[in-house]
Design brief:
Four copies of one chain form a homotetramer. With 253 residues, chain A is an alpha+beta fold. Chain A is 46% helix and 22% strand. In chain A, helix 6 crosses helix 7. Chains C and D meet through helix 1, helix 2, helix 4, helix 6 and helix 8 of C and helix 2, helix 4, helix 6 and helix 8 of D.
Chain lengths: 253, 253, 253, 253
Amino acid sequence: MTNTQVTLVQIDNYGPWTVTPEPRREADLQTMQSRLYADISQFVGNRGGYTFFTRFDNMIAVTNGLTMDDHATLQESIGNRYPVTLSLGVATGTSPVQALADATERLQNAGSAQDETRRECLEGRTIDDDYRTADDVQIAHFDVVNVTGNYTDQLNAFDTFIEIEQGYAELMRHMRYAHDSLSFFVGGDNVIVVCPDLEKPDYEEAIAHVDEAVDVQLQVGVGRGESAHDAGYAAKHALETCRADGTRVELED
Amino acid sequence: MTNTQVTLVQIDNYGPWTVTPEPRREADLQTMQSRLYADISQFVGNRGGYTFFTRFDNMIAVTNGLTMDDHATLQESIGNRYPVTLSLGVATGTSPVQALADATERLQNAGSAQDETRRECLEGRTIDDDYRTADDVQIAHFDVVNVTGNYTDQLNAFDTFIEIEQGYAELMRHMRYAHDSLSFFVGGDNVIVVCPDLEKPDYEEAIAHVDEAVDVQLQVGVGRGESAHDAGYAAKHALETCRADGTRVELED
Amino acid sequence: MTNTQVTLVQIDNYGPWTVTPEPRREADLQTMQSRLYADISQFVGNRGGYTFFTRFDNMIAVTNGLTMDDHATLQESIGNRYPVTLSLGVATGTSPVQALADATERLQNAGSAQDETRRECLEGRTIDDDYRTADDVQIAHFDVVNVTGNYTDQLNAFDTFIEIEQGYAELMRHMRYAHDSLSFFVGGDNVIVVCPDLEKPDYEEAIAHVDEAVDVQLQVGVGRGESAHDAGYAAKHALETCRADGTRVELED
Amino acid sequence: MTNTQVTLVQIDNYGPWTVTPEPRREADLQTMQSRLYADISQFVGNRGGYTFFTRFDNMIAVTNGLTMDDHATLQESIGNRYPVTLSLGVATGTSPVQALADATERLQNAGSAQDETRRECLEGRTIDDDYRTADDVQIAHFDVVNVTGNYTDQLNAFDTFIEIEQGYAELMRHMRYAHDSLSFFVGGDNVIVVCPDLEKPDYEEAIAHVDEAVDVQLQVGVGRGESAHDAGYAAKHALETCRADGTRVELED
């Protein structure tokens, strides 16, 4: 049984900030956002978690292993080094979608994302160390079969990107509504999915669905672990097996 | 008449590097990728260009105003500071899609993205200063009407993200095939589109198409300029007018 | 009784790398070094430690609270994201100078700093959680009395810097040979000193010595704690008392 | 005849900011400072300039080749991405010390470094392109003879650092008062000196002086150029000749 700890990271009042007093230079916003994400990814990542950039102004992290104190340190550190601040909502559950819904609700209850008086909220609770298990997190790591040979070296860079995007858009929607899972594009042709307890046929079904809907061929490695890193690392190894053996779904035990 | 200068930025042999000798820690890859992007965005951006993260291993930039020497300095600087290197293909043209196709072809001719002997290619040519004009770049800046009130403060963070993604996926495909334009998600609910010479009815048609296809309501500001920054800054101002006046398409002259 | 845990961070074979195959662009080296330092400072700092940039190719950290596993994660993370790698030597003791000497010796025994086969060494041991106490670390935070009024707003920027440097050079030498302490310039007019069990008269003596030797007037706040952050934070508060009350030495209990 | 363009970079009202409302986490300050420096170093560096971290709250740059517009872009970009802002003073002259004094005076005239109403000043003027020559900048790059064999692999890391610091402190003072030059420690055992028109005997004298005063043996490569990068790159090559041939002073023509 999975027990995913999900953190919603929201930049406080970001939209208004980007245009006050005048619209800010786009390249500066892009730089600031991606560095902010990188810093959060490092902080969470070297404690065993995964952070996804998502919309950049709203990021989603799997934070099994991080305490509320860790979250507070992250919040303080970003506040000391950036021109913006973060609010954090944390929740846990067997369904990643439900956990994220709970985390979101905690922040929404504290105020609007564009309420200028809502700053540096820290809401929710984490899993006590005593209750953590080796099955808490299930991660599936998808990529596109032979993307370099079939796309990157054949199509122009944008058309390749369109193909990958269509595959991702279809997969994210399907995994969310059919399998209660959260899917995130992580660069290249890679999509990482945070799942509840799914089995091999679920993944086979998802791959078949995407193939049929948008004609993109995916393969997937799946791992379980106490943390996102443990589960995700097992998933990466399983995906290497797909690549080596030409299989489409591999679960690392 | 637009004359967009497009640069394809490709990390050399990146896929194999990420799994050699063992798969690398995902959080480190995410951090490295987003900082690499941030550095390129700064370099290009403080010379008036725009860089889009796209797939991260393949980034696309609008580089009007940058010389081949500037590109070489960027390439050298990244090579000195990162564990990976970049290849750059540059091309220009009235159609952003065609310019990107040419830039892509120049790199493909130099070797596969996963050819380990193809490193730090720099191919193509830029627009001479004497030929640059105030109409060279057309940028459209789209966002979702009242995204905070309609989505962020209502749905869970992932379902909001799905809605934005569907709008983006539909817009990117439509703008590419109907209008020869390159669309990029840039965070929040913002999509920046690099366009050829389009007119107000083209944008109205695109907004209507997305509304009908996936029920996402967009608004757009459009600007022209000698560089991506000039055009994009005008587009941001035009979008502010949409927000203030409740209009859906504004062109800044 | 203090028990300082000191880590020597050494970039492997850095000197030769900076000139191979040709000397690398100085601005790139400066950027890379300072970002590498910043990353280590964040990693160590958000676990309660302090890192000092020192020579940049050799950095010194106070790491009470970090395990050997933490050190290994840092080493792996830097290796994944930079073109250089780190070796780490760790040691503990009542004298910070002796602890650093032991940490240094462990790395020297593993090979020369410019031995190209010595890469990513991790040597030494940390303090078990059970043996950590609230007196393990003593930090003194010095600055120059009224530096803005007396120097920054009066002299040219370099002459101010010379004055601060002379004060620092004298303090570092005196604290090392008279008080077994490690002193680090941390920007502005601030020097942070890692001390064994010193008392108020020791600090008064040091301030008088620097005043007499190079005519620079210092004040100091001193704190104790389980970690560098705890001790250093108390020291900062004590220094605020100096600034408010015009005293020269304050110890926070 | 040299004509050095010097920029003083001052963080506005930094000291008070670091302790308001409470002292900020030291590791965050260190991280923020060093990244701010890194960003400035990149911006200036990829336009041919050199930036020195100096005190971090006051940095000194050699900016031949940068226009006032470039300075304004830097200032805007930092203001968009950091919690602090910069004031910049620019001046030029045959003596680097005098140029820095003029740049400093321009900022001092605009207000105190701790005046909270003085923000984002940009004062001074740059050298017109038509007046730039290949002799404008003279850079000397010093290091310690066989530092790894004599120090790093022999002494503990702090005692090595003390030796290097004493050499640096003596050199900086001597070069400033005897030779109107600005000396900056840049990591490892490297000191970069921005000089007026000096000749070989001047450098021989300086090396002999430091040897006699503090028993540290230095070698130096000297270069001239239109920009700091050109001059500094020639100096690095000249220093490689010292290392290869065992000479102590080399000038690259």
